[in-house]
Amino acid sequence: MIKPNRIGTPGAMRERTRGIRVCTAVTISAVDVISEAVEDLRIGQVYGRRAEVGASFAGRFLSCEGVGFHVMLRGEGWLISGSAPPARMRAGDIALIPHGAEHGFSPEPCTLAELPPAPMGLQDPPAERLPVEMICGIYRLERGGAVHPFLRSLPDVLLVSPDYDREARLRVLIDLLVEDLDKPREGTLVTRPALVDLMLVHTLRLWSGTTAETWDALGDPGIAAALREIHDSPQTPWTVERLGRTAGMSRTAFTRRFTTLVGTPPMTYLIGRRLNQGAHLLRETDAPLSAIARQVGYATEFAFAGAFRREFGISPGRFRRRTEPILN
């Protein structure tokens, strides 16, 4: 059973997302949204580290475009957010940062402004066992792309306290990630992203089990139907009018409703979906650029390449050839 916490509680989510409706009969399930949101992150760069710190450690993690988490392996402290009261974090707890908001860790309640920037990157191993130990993982979208609107709709920080007797697989997953961080070896380019993916998915599933709330957009049958069409057929020559008909709304009403619930206008969202899918195809297939362009809704590879460069700041060809290192 997940114990409620003051950061990212269902009540806090309702406060953040007033007007949300419980989804009763939509065509996109929460699991589908979680899968798609995490899949979008794979065009980014994976970072991971294991850290041991003293009981007096206090640090602030700066905001970024991405999604991350902290797992407390040993010790306790306070999770600090700019949008909610401090919450105590104990061994076994998982803090998810669903859209890269600034946050911090402290031995006692405080404000973010009181915390110094946390040291980043590789640190010398401690000479002796320290009282606080945690692992951290993050996907950074440093070269374009954006966190999925579903993740942006969540509170700045989610804190869950798994019951590891019921969530034995999560314990095994954490142990595997610890080993992967401690002993990187051949295959790490595959295992590290896969383990971070699984941590994000499991944590989001645990969080979703604590609340009946859902993404605003999925609580509206018309907007949910339009999203389904965009996700299933991004290559279709969609227009705002056509999507509006799918949603059973006028062009103006649809644009207003979609922008309010999703957080971005319909055509901006469509372009983002097309380019994210194109990025996945570039990374995961050897299909020619012209075929990928058609598959994601562009008439020519030149049109696709231009849009891709505007979004990611790099040509499709260079993006495909680039191999991201696994960083700590």
User: By helix and strand content, what is the structural category?
Assistant: alpha+beta
Helix content: 40-55%
Order of helices and strands: HHEEEEEEEEHEHHHHHHHHH
| Tally of contiguous helical segments | 12
Distance between the termini: 32 Å
**Number of extended strands:** 9
Mean pLDDT: 84
Major beta-sheet overview:
5 strands, antiparallel
Strand order of the largest sheet: 1-8-3-6-9
Query: Percent of residues in beta strands?
Result: 15-25%
Shape: globular
**Residue runs with pLDDT of under 50 for 5 or more positions:** 1-6, 9-31
Radius of gyration: 21 Å
Protein name: AraC family transcriptional regulator
Domain HTH araC/xylS-type: 224-322
Keywords: DNA-binding, Transcription, Transcription regulation
Pfam family, one: HTH_18
Observed structural traits:
about 325 residues; alpha+beta; four-stranded antiparallel beta sheet; 9 strands; disordered N terminus; transcription
Describe this structure in words.
With 328 residues, the chain is of the alpha+beta class. Helices cover 41% and strands 16% of the residues. The chain has helices at residues 10-16, 30-41, 149-152, 168-182, 188-208, 221-232, 240-247, 251-262, 266-284, 289-295, 301-312, 316-321, and strands at 45-53, 59-61, 66-74, 76-81, 87-90, 94-97, 103-106, 132-140, 158-160. The strands form 2 sheets. Strands 1-8-3-6-9 form a 5-stranded antiparallel beta sheet, covered by helices on one side. A hairpin with a 5-residue loop joins strand 4 and strand 5. Helix 2 runs antiparallel to helix 5 and helix 6 crosses helix 7 (240-247). The two termini are 32 Å apart. Residues 1-6 and 9-31 have low confidence and may be disordered. Residues 224-322 form the HTH araC/xylS-type domain. Pfam families: Cupin_6, HTH_18. InterPro entries: AraC_lig (IPR032783), AraC_XylS_family_regulators (IPR050204), Homeodomain-like_sf (IPR009057), HTH_AraC (IPR018060), HTH_AraC-typ_CS (IPR018062).
